[in-house]
Amino acid sequence: MGDLEVDIILNLKKADxxxxxxxxxxxxxxxxxxxxxxxxxxxxxGYRIDHVxxxxxxxxxxxxxxxxxxxxxxxxxxxxxxxxxAFGRVTSTNDVAVSLARxxxxxxxxxxxEEQARGRGRRGRVxxxxxxxxxxxxxxxxxxxxxxxxxxxxxxxxxxxxxSLEEAYGIRAQIKWPNDVLxxxxxxxxxxxxxxxxxxxxxxxxxxxxxxxxxxxxQFPDDIAAIATSVAVETGRRVSRTxxxxxxxxxxxxxxSELRHHGFEGIRTKLLxxxxxxxxxxxxxxPDGVVEGVAADIDISGALLLRREDGSTERLVAGEVMGIL
Length: 325
Ligand code: BTN
Fold this sequence. Notes:
It is a single chain. By secondary structure, the chain is an alpha+beta fold. Helix content is 34%, strand content 29%. The chain is built from ten helices and 14 strands. The strands form three sheets. The chain has a seven-stranded mixed sheet with strand order 3-4-5-9-8-7-6, with helices on both faces. Strands 13-12-11-10-14 form a five-stranded antiparallel sheet. A hairpin with a 2-residue loop joins strand 7 and strand 8. The chain starts with a helix and ends with a strand. Biotin binds next to helix 5, strand 5, strand 8 and strand 9.
């Protein structure tokens, strides 16, 4: 799928009416013959394009499967999604993104798949990634931060996911530190961030995001059925996955830019406002053992501060919330 097809879809989306081949040709700087050839190609890919002789072409619908043209046209002008690799089935989009990053792919490269054969969650867990249900994607970032700063990137991404789900779909989303997005206490999105360093500087960060979009209640496996939810379950609507992707990626881009230009404080405020933990007695498994206390704050480097019963404060830079008590 070439740039011309992306350009035609962009123009048809923008126009939202019939557009003549001559107009499209002028806008895309190609001949009418090339327009007609590209429209044929798009129709073959599942785009529903109405053709009225004399009036031209109008986009009536996009394919059910996520299409790289659609993604690229939705993210046109954004840094994230500047390059898009869309696959049917991969082991894990994080694995693909890490190898692309090692090979020099630029900041903003987005890798997405319909299905992951070995979708990975945090702490070695499996991430349920069936075809047709969700958004399983990874973004390469090159933030030029020190090792400590890289933790704040996944927090900024989590805030972006939560904000966009609320703004675009009216879903009240909360964040469970470090970066699970919850709706009514159930997980709608998980984030797995992996980074490589040169000396103490980040060479690249791959932010891997899994969002349950169209998964029905009965489709979740037994072990997560009670603790998982999806955009479709929460809204009662069969939303477009590429539509969700565009909102989420743009919102992550805004937060990433805020982080780079103004530091973590603004993101921290958003995280505190949306926190599922603050003020609650929380049990966290850390690399050094299990800690319990009231979640009191998130500090300026993204660590969770727990106030223990004896009044002391525990600062957690990594961990897994085992329970909100
Ligand atoms: C978690 O909550 O445990 C993190 C889940 C992260 C899942 C996403 S899906 C896209 C990317 N590829 C993976 O293998 N994992 C992440």
